[in-house]
Predict the structure of ATP phosphoribosyltransferase.
Amino acid sequence: MRFKLVFFVPLPALSACKTAIFAAGAGHYPGPGNYTECCFTVIGTGQFRPGATAKPHIGTIGTLEEVQEARVETICLGEEIVRKAVEALKKAHPYEEVAYDVYRMEDF
């Protein structure tokens, strides 16, 4: 079973987060080429307003923030790998709340 992990990260933490998920087994592409550390990265602008009880890594409570972030997509082979990758991502990521998605992939 294959999964796609997608997450958003501020640019200064991009390398650390990719290193963490790859060490957990993410980014191995299935097939004869034995590709590793595979991902797609695109830069964009993230937006958030920290609430009254937040402990923001970036920004100020109550103030709308816009931050340059990377969107990273990678493949994970098996549920155990995607779970380990998410756990590693949460440890490496600087934000209080990590924005990520996990999608089950189909093979047609």
Observations:
- Helices lie at 14-23, 79-92.
- The radius of gyration is 15 Å.
- The longest strand covers residues 65-77.
- Strands lie at 2-10, 40-48, 65-77, 100-105.
